[in-house]
TrEMBL record, chains A, B:
Subunit structure, interactors included: Homodimer.
Annotated residues for binding of Zn(2+): C93, C111, C118
UniProt keyword annotations, A-Z: Amino-acid biosynthesis, Cytoplasm, Histidine biosynthesis, Hydrolase, Magnesium, Metal-binding, Zinc
Species of the source: Aminobacter carboxidus
EC annotation from Swiss-Prot or TrEMBL: 3.5.4.19
Functional summary from the UniProt entry: Catalyzes the hydrolysis of the adenine ring of phosphoribosyl-AMP.
Family the entry assigns: Belongs to the PRA-CH family.
Name of the molecule in the record: Phosphoribosyl-AMP cyclohydrolase
Gene of this entry: hisI
Associated pathway: Amino-acid biosynthesis; L-histidine biosynthesis; L-histidine from 5-phospho-alpha-D-ribose 1-diphosphate: step 3/9
Amino acid sequence: MTLQFPQASEDKRALEEGEAFTPRFDANGLVTAVVTDAGDGVLLMVAHMNAEALALTIETGIAHYWSRSRGSLWKKGETSGNFQHVVEIRTDCDQDAVWLRVNVTGHEATCHTGRRSCFYRTVGYKNGMATLSADGSAPLFDTDETYHKKS
Amino acid sequence: MTLQFPQASEDKRALEEGEAFTPRFDANGLVTAVVTDAGDGVLLMVAHMNAEALALTIETGIAHYWSRSRGSLWKKGETSGNFQHVVEIRTDCDQDAVWLRVNVTGHEATCHTGRRSCFYRTVGYKNGMATLSADGSAPLFDTDETYHKKS
């Protein structure tokens, strides 16, 4: 019953200007998903979706991804309660990426470190070296308790 | 003279909480780059960077990418004049993606279709089919003239 996606057109104009959503999955069967907060637009995370994750996201309105590290479908928030409710999905010109604008439930945290966003460090450049500086954002939930209690 | 990046640590804590920027390039030598407007936060594009593109971006403050379709370094804006001046670079928890907040010069357009953003279509779901709707954003420059005049 899962939504199926038609094969992507090889016609550039159809891909860029057409009304058919024909995601261009890469060699691993994935598209890139960029996830921002529907409220203030902050970038929360970057992840990947296979066809099943993308279809489930569209059908249920709850973000699903493909976990490359675990090699499995990943309903974001299933452990932490921090589900992502999708307000809008967009795709880009060549349809190999999607943009999800979401509202996060639970602790309003997206990162597995407990922070609101995965992008909590800025890149600096000093004396020919690239460095990172934390922006001071703190964990919004106890990740040890949330993730380690499960066995 | 180009900035070199140290090998990424296998220690998860160093990667997530450390102060060394050690990007985790994938099997193709790329990290994902998410690009937003530094002014209003709108998502402009998603692209990829190899080590050289990332180093040049950090060193020059102008966004460079790796064009997967052309297989070459890509100084964004070289043809159109729509350069991206980098206000801030962030990386995510596992350092396999970067977030660039930029100011776009020239026509203030990022998409090769002439539009401000590559994400000009929303995904809808009707009668078991996923469809696209244009958001009405129009080209900000004459792409035929800009791209086709060059031979």
